[in-house]
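Why predict the complex rather than its parts? Because the way molecules touch one another can change local conformation, and only a joint prediction can capture that. The input here totals 542 residues.
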Amino acid sequence: MVVIVASAGDQTARALAEAWECADARLLTPLDLSLPGWHCRFCTPEPGMAVVDGKTVPAETINGIVTRLPWITEGEIPHVAEQDRAYVAAEMQAFLFAWLSRLACPVLNRPTPFCLSGPAWRHEKWISVAGRLGIRVRSARRITRPGSPPKLHSATGSDVTGGLAEVTVVAGRYGGPDSRLVEPTQQLAAAAGVRMLTAYYSNHDRDAELAGVSLWPDITNPAIRDAMLRCFTDESGAR
Amino acid sequence: MILLWGMDGDPPLAAVRSALDRRNAPYFYLDQRAILDTEVHLDAGADTRGYVRYRGQELRFEDVTASYIRPDDSRQLADVSAAGPESTAWLHALSVEDTLLSWTEITPALVINRPSAMGSNTSKPYQLELIHALGFDTPETLVTTDPDAALAFWNEHKEVIYKSVSSVRSKVARITSQHLNRLGHIATCPTQFQKYVPGVDYRVHVVGESVFGCSVESAGDDYRYAQSNVSPCALPDFVAARAKDVAAGLGLMLAGLDLRRTPEDCWVCFEVNPSPGFTFYDRLEGEPIAAAIARLLASAGRG
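Output of the joint prediction:
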């Protein structure tokens, strides 16, 4: 079974689960954390039980995980009393993070304390780490002065995609169309401890500057989907 | 230069500031309460540059060798809260806070502690597995949404406590028969249960290579909410060594470990606080914990 951790409203994740029917892919949403059946004894080798798509499953039957959901917000759990939602969302997030962290199967990407999809690095951190690796970067600048709105110079977050060269790496299996930029992207992924990311560069040339990074590659791209699925099938067989 | 950043009046920050004064060590004190008068500029590339200005003073980030940070949520400040979400003041405060936090993650300076290193505390069972892997005994722990599993755990261990999974502060309490008719509620939210561990509480602070222990005598299941007596004490060498290993393993230069010594002389670790309010325990003359933090800050960047 492949589990896709996603928001209940994430239609792209739902489509991925349908496309991966052959791998018994199923969605795990925050609503599953409000169902009886979860059972995990920490600091023991016991894999425990999980609830996926409404059904209780032994955790050892999971061959791979995709983490599409960065964190659980109050909006994900409308069935919980309003005054309790912030607390319950924090508890669910803390548990899901701990549970995902202890799984032996491949996880794209492994969660960190502040983001279930990988390191919660700010734009400046990606740029700084890349710069120290010797990758050409488009520097990031922030200016905040009293009485005036904060200013960001250089593209950040989701604003970076327009007109840029995009390179995605998935567990060393997929490099995207521009092979010259694959190596620095793999270096950056290794430095960040992630197996899957998309890097955006200023152009397709050798002198391209890194402009931004996303932990959420385009999973509608068949080549990326194939690389992810091969990661799960190859590595779960090797365990 | 040493940067101190936090709320004016915060006891640990004040204690470290006093300890630096006693050492005549220079520092730049950035009071978070003056956030609306603070200007910050950050350039990130292969190098990190920028500055923070307030009250007519300027600190260049390139000059910072060490930092002790204790920021609170800026949105809770009276001026910011009164201005309301999306106001210029609100956006300014969030931007200053986020820019400074961003700097702490990319600066080569010593930071006590980097927010990313403090993250393990956001999930108690996650942190517990790290503590266990680093050598300490840990309490048997179940997180479940299954009332039958919780009941079986209680029957197995007889004495069981429950507490929050996240870093949301909760009062540790023992399960009693009065809780049984409420066990069904756990189906809505993963709930953490632990085998009750009898014994004497110890709080151990690690500051770099220094370790400070104190025992806590209390009749409560959670001594933070009960009358308690705190006494500085010596620790067995292996406990001090393990405490240092845990702090180092979590990437923390300063850590507060909650331990309990059982009647069988087993040392069980429950949790590590990455931003401990150590002043409650720092009761010996000369405030040795604050002095050790000041020493660590002052020694950074001197090769």
